[in-house]
Amino acid sequence: MQTDMHADAKSAAPLLQVSSAADCLAFMQGGCELKKIRPSSRVYCRFYMLDPDLSCLRWEPSKKDGDRARLDVSSMREVRTGKSTETFLHNGPLFEHLPEEAAFSIIHGDDYQSLDLVALSADVANIWVTGLRYLLAHPSIIGGAGVGSLEGGPGDGGIAAVEGSLGSKMRSDWLKTEFAEVDEDGYGIVSEDVAVATICKLCPGIREAKVRLRFKEIQRSKEKLTSHVTLEEFQEAFCELCTRPDVYFLLVQLSQDRECLDPQDLRLFLETEQGLSLATTEGCWDLLKRYEPSAQGRERGLLGVDGFARYLQSPECQLLDPEQLAVCQDMNLPLCHYYISTSYRSYLLDDQVHGRADLGGLIRALQSGCRCLELGVTDGPEGEPLLGVNYGPDISRHHPHHAPVTIRSALEVVNKYAFLTSQYPLLLYLCQRCSPSQQCTMAHHLKKVFGSRLYTPEGLSVGLGGRAITLPSPEQLKGRILLVAKKLPPEHEGSDGEVSEEEEEIGGGGPLAGRRMTIPGEEELGVVLVVPPPSQPRKLRLHKELSDLVAVARTGSRSFYTQRAGYKKAQQQSPPSSPVSPGSPLPPELPYWTMCSLGEGEAGRLTSESPEELVMFTKRTLTRVRPSSVRLDSSNPNPQGYWKGGVQLVALNQQTPGAMLDLHRGRFSQNGGCGYVLRPAVMRDEVSYFSAHTHGCVPGVPPQTLRIKVISAHNLPKPQGSGAKGEVIDPYVVLELHGVPADCAEQRTRTAAQNQDDPMFDETFEFQVNMPELALLRFVVLDDDYIGDDFIGQFSVAFECLQPGYRNVPLLGLAGDPLPHSSLFVHIVITNRRGGGKAQRKGLSVRRGGRRGREYVSLRHTGIKVVDEVFKQANGPLKEGTDLRENAQSSTATFKEQCGLPAVAKLKQCIQSLATRLQSPEGNMGATMVLREGYPCLEPLISLPEATRKVLAAYDTMIAAQKQLIGNADGVQERIDQVYREGMDLHEDFPRLGEKEGLKGRKLSKAVESFTWNITVLKVRRPVY
């Protein structure tokens, strides 16, 4: 009888609008179908209901007689959520099809037996869990005490003891106060317009039409002849429309069913769920006062459901780490160590051939944080250069209704907006086709408009071999503008000279000439391009006055191939570092800073065929990728494909919205949006190994597991241009993970059919992230439609900027603008344990694995005996460190499992659960905590049930594993450090050792690669905690 519950839940909508425990109990008394899971792995469908006197749970049909097909509430010990009992854990593969979010278990009896159930949806499971936990926390209402009639529903009284709970009374009094403020006559009634406006004020984002419709329904149900609203009707409408079930269920879980949080409850929530280990009681009081709307709650230090909802929707609970809202990275490293926000011809409207120039595009690019701006310049009339491309002699023929834009006006706009968003340096990428005379005019404009802001390195010092010194840092260049363009050789004399100007076309010739290739990321389009042969470089007369202003010389792809050839030659005599060590023969290099500009096709080919060499090249040289010339519609390539290859500047058409620009914004929303983001450490270290094409673990980087629970969405707007589709939308959420190939994955929630603008999803997804520093997460909300799924909103964020816990995801529109009050509500957990593969929708339980399933990091053989002997010494401590870490993690996971909590639970939550079990009915504790050698141990004081003894045994095992880890970690780390130091000493002598072993050419290159791999592993793996 095992059916696919995911399909059942697809169209399942909330069966009851829940705003109180009374609503939950009323639903349970009405009953519903649940799936009963037996230890034998059999699944039975049964109809479960709560007795009218709340004393027991019954089910039917059953082979048992009526007295046996029941479970007394008084015998229940606890209610667990998810698949956390032995029945689920020991039969995991058989129950994979049952959704984690809809599963719950009732633990009962002295021997802690479990009744394992699965509801039709997460909503229904939450109602049962909330109602049962409320009964366990309030035994006085069981068996008829305080029970009134439930037939009229919660609005007519319901259960007196429940309706009188602290949280609901506080909320009722607050709404009464708000109603009294708008009831000017004091008659207890207000007009419908006033009632609607008041609710919209108290609950920002709710649609006025939705509120008005609810009041109309109330009037019809009561057959009222007037549209005036009473206090009771106002409260009923507000509680029904403005109570978020997801927030209510969470609140009840945290408050031990009091329906409000005190400072201690809130502090525990901040510590265990939100990752705020330094939360204080004083800080919680301050938070209560800021977000609790009722005066009574603020005075008593209580946070009700409305205040809790306001807090969860506040900036404090947004997904993006607030630390990233300001510059928080080291800005004192060379420019080539950063990704740089780059625009491509953002001054053009429409297409790339006939598009007219517009200053608004430059303004928008600078306001969005771009730090590299491209300007195309051509000769204009009367000796004044113009902004744009391919202007002919008759300029008016191209755009008769629009006057051309002069380069001076463009420079003035750039100067005005250059540093309003970011103070860090602006690179002005100049592509000019001007005559020497107009170049001279342009040079005068540059000096006059920018003045001291224009950075012109005079007498640039050079290192050994004639190479320019390292690029300055963003901090050193704050407030400066650097011109990137063609440059005359420093020894050139005369007023102008000739330089080669590569054509801006795909491939750019070189070794790829004549090859057939597709645009990276768009292979499915079937567009095959042939790389043209390397034509003779176009010669350009360059005026020396303009050349002298250039801070970074622009070069083409030939500079990469030249350096690569030089490195291969130099490798025969140099240590395996990147770049080649100073004392060795060097490849030809210009004595000034350069930027290599690649077409997207050629850059894509390099990331696939020469990923290590491209990363090596970018460790020292700024590299830029421009969109293909076939993108006449100003579309954009996928920037992630080039970032993973180390490319610092991926130029995008900022005027073209879409997924590619979303990823760009997600990457550069971090670090204060300043336009500079540090590249991963493996792309910056002198001796390191990284391949952009890796399909597995990155050496030395422990993989992390990302678990995302998409709980709900709120205030979703209709898709743009969907007016004919009616008011109802069918939304679903897509989660995209972008990164190295091993990380790329995509999953989606079910469609919330006919669920309008506030759908509930309650679905959990898991991703394994092998390279966290490169990963980007994108949420996309779409409207499911048989014609085509319409875009509603999205949000993109860097993996390392994610905040754990319950988070609000603000949705952005197609152009990147915030959608008012529209958001997703999610729960984020990041662990360093390996998950069950990438992007699988599964439960949060962790299955224990023996040592046989462990993955130990391996070091590579270099083929040089003395080097391999050194690295061989690290195998023992690396394995020992992995065992120490895995034993500690595995024992902790077992302890959580025995406590009936998911793997994502915090230890503080486990201790609280254990304390509840150890407490006798008389209130005495069944165990005491003592310190043994500085470690907390639990000693039983009384005879405990077997289930509780298992938990204590798991606790002892966890403490022993942690003791082993702490006691041995320093010694293991020192042994790894020693091998690392010896390896780096051999690095200087590597060429001679390789020559002694007879390694040449390809074999030597392989030895170099293995050496850098091993050094990378040892450097990152040194901490074993």
UniProtKB/TrEMBL annotation:
Q: Chief localization class?
A: cytoplasm
Which Pfam families does the UniProt record give? C2, EF-hand_like, PH_12, PI-PLC-X, PI-PLC-Y
Catalyses: a 1,2-diacyl-sn-glycero-3-phospho-(1D-myo-inositol-4,5-bisphosphate) + H2O = 1D-myo-inositol 1,4,5-trisphosphate + a 1,2-diacyl-sn-glycerol + H(+)
Q: Which domain of life, per UniProt?
A: Eukaryota
* A GO CC term assigned to this protein in UniProt: cytoplasm
Limits of the PI-PLC Y-box domain: 592-684
Q: Record's PANTHER family?
A: INACTIVE PHOSPHOLIPASE C-LIKE PROTEIN 1, PHOSPHOINOSITIDE-SPECIFIC PHOSPHOLIPASE C FAMILY PROTEIN
UniProt keywords, alphabetically: Cytoplasm, Hydrolase, Lipid degradation, Lipid metabolism, Transducer
Bias (Acidic residues) ranges = 496-506
Task: State the name under which the record lists this protein.
Answer: Phosphoinositide phospholipase C
Offer one example of a GO biological process linked to this entry.
intracellular signal transduction
Q: Where is this region: Disordered?
A: 488-514, 564-588
Which molecular function GO terms apply here?
phosphatidylinositol-4,5-bisphosphate phospholipase C activity
For this protein, the Enzyme Commission number is 3.1.4.11
UniProt entry tagged with the keyword Ribosomal protein: no
Any signal peptide, and if so, which residues? none
Cell compartment(s), UniProt: Cytoplasm
C2 domain: which residues? 684-813
Q: Return the Pro residues bias intervals.
A: 576-588
Query: CDD domains this protein is in?
Result: C2_PLC_like (cd00275), EFh_PRIP1 (cd16222), PH_PLC_eta (cd13364)
- Gene name in the database record: plcl1
